[in-house]
Structure formats: C-alpha cells, structure tokens
Write a structure and sequence with these properties.
Blueprint: E1 2-5, H1 13-27, E2 33-36, H2 43-51, E3 54-57, H3 60-63, E4 70-73, H4 80-87, E5 92-95, H5 99-113, E6 117-121, H6 127-133, E7 140-143, H7 146-150, E8 160-164, H8 170-184, H9 195-208, E9 213-217, H10 223-235, E10 239-242, E11 258-263, H11 269-280
Parallel strand pairs: 1-11, 2-3, 2-4, 4-5, 6-7, 6-8, 9-10, 9-11
C-alpha cells in the first residue's frame, strides 16, 4: 500500500502562533492563564493545556467574573466590543488573533467608517466570522452560497464590499464572487481566503483524485477540516473523517493500493504521523 500524506497537513501559521503564545505563558509561570474559547478546535491539544492549568472562558458571563490573570485571544479573533470588555476586566490581554484575520478586521472597520455594506463569504455561526462582523459599525451580511449572495437586500450596490472567512472553500468563494459581481453590479472584492488554506485545499483535491481512499484528520468542530472532508468526498467516495487514530476503521482501506491523508489546520503533527504509520502497517 502506498500512503500519501499531504505536505500542507497540520498546524497553520495562525494556530501555531496562538498555541506557542499559551505555551510561552505556561513556561514563564504566568497564573492563571485563560483562553476565550478553546485555543484551537482540537480536543487533544486543549486537554493537554488544561492539564497544565490553562482554563477556557466559554461565555461573556464567565468573562465578567474574571479580574486577574492573563486572557489569550485565540487565532479566530473576537468582536471589538468583546475585546474592550476583556480589557475592562483588569486582566492582561494577549492578542493571538491570526494576522490574516486581523487584516479582515481592518477592512471591516474601514467599511463601517465609510458607510459601506460588508459581505462575508463564511459561516455566520463560526467564531471568526462573528468576530469580523463585530468590527464594522455598518451593515454586514454573511453568506455561504451564491444564491444567498444574489438575494442580499443591498440598497446601494456601489458601496458593497465582499471578503471571505480565511478558511472558506476557495472554489465556493469564486462562485460567490461571480454571483456577487453579477447581482450587486460592483467589483470590490478582497480575496481573504488564507493562502495556507488555499494550498491545503488544492493539495487535498489533487491527492483525493489519485487515491483509492482518503483519510481526513481534524477536530469535529474545525471549520477548515470539515471543508477538506467535503472536498475529499467530492473526489473520492471512500473518504473518512477522524479526530485521532482511535476513530479509524481500517476495513475500508485494506483493499486499497493508494491511500491519501490530509489534516486540518488545528491537527498536531504527532496525530498525523501516528495515523500514517498505522495505515502503512496494514
């Protein structure tokens, strides 16, 4: 059996940066350390950090009870209102928002100041998108399909700006761009899909087209991993989605001559290698 592991699989720059910030605080003996929401969408990493004393703030109500320690803003970022609320707690704030997400925050803020409508290609329930929406004072919409983009109630088409969630499916974004330009009569589009996301999706698609089976590794709540799985299923019907080796059912792969492996941006390399080694032994 030939096992092909995507070179782009694993931690992206933003996730790695956020995790390193938390690990630095632990090494320096800072206590207590909080993260607003799980630092990344990977239970194994979050549990390991919890064993080292890192606590997770899961709501604004919990945030209001904190008056000391250090709060880390994860790579997804947060709305401006929430960041200001964190700063008012008296805790030290470490902003580990991904720089690529920060770029979209600046676009959103400027759009609001100029009275423009911001349209985000992304999941409205995702923390990153909610954070972006919270940086504009103007009208803002989040869409996931070309149809949604076509039916937006935009009163002044010339003032509309389209951006994307950094982990959005690149192909879907292109289709939304086409519909956006067609229906809104404006071409102010900023492609904010992260280059690492684009590379990972492209490589995953290329591998899935050439193998008998595909394994996608990542947290169940990881948006970018879910998109990788969708890409794999479209190219290779024998695709599975797992969090760790424990979830892997090897039966569908025992008759395969070529197996591909990819992983989301929140998946540690140790988990990817563990799965790859196991599959090679089949």
């Amino acid at each position: 059996m030939e096992v092909i592991v995507a070179k782009s699989a694993g931690f992206c720059f933003g996730v790695q940066r956020a995790v390193k910030e938390v690990e630095r605080l632990i090494r320096e003996g800072v206590k207590p350390v909080w993260t607003y929401g799980p630092i990344i969408h990977n239970e194994q990493v979050v549990n390991e950090l919890a064993e080292k004393g890192v606590r997770v703030i899961r709501s604004e109500e919990e945030l209001e009870q904190i008056h000391e320690g250090t709060i880390v803003i994860r790579s997804h970022g947060v709305p401006r209102r929430l960041q200001e609320k964190m700063e008012a707690t008296g805790a030290v704030i470490v902003d580990a928002t991904c720089p690529f997400v920060k770029k979209i925050h600046r676009i959103a803020e400027k759009a609001g100041q100029e009275g423009k409508t911001l349209v985000i290609a992304g999941n409205p329930d995702h923390p990153e998108v909610q954070g972006i929406m919270g940086w504009t004072e103007g009208t803002v919409f989040a869409v996931e399909t070309p149809e949604e983009a076509a039916n937006l109630p935009i009163t002044d088409p010339q003032s509309a700006i389209l951006v994307a969630q950094t982990t959005f499916n690149k192909m879907k974004f292109k289709s939304i761009v086409e519909k956006f330009k067609e229906s809104v009569y404006h071409e102010y589009v900023v492609d904010t899909v992260c280059s690492a996301t684009d590379e990972r999706q492209t490589e995953t698609r290329d591998i899935a087209r050439t193998v008998d089976a595909m394994i996608v590794i990542g947290g169940r709540h990881s948006s970018n991993t879910q998109k990788l799985y969708q890409i794999c299923k479209a190219e290779c019907s024998n695709s599975c989605y797992i969090e760790t080796l424990v979830d892997l059912d090897v039966k569908p792969f025992q008759t395969s001559s070529r197996v591909g492996i990819t992983a989301g941006a929140s998946t540690p390399n140790i988990i990817i290698e563990e799965v790859a080694q196991h599959v090679r032994k089949l």
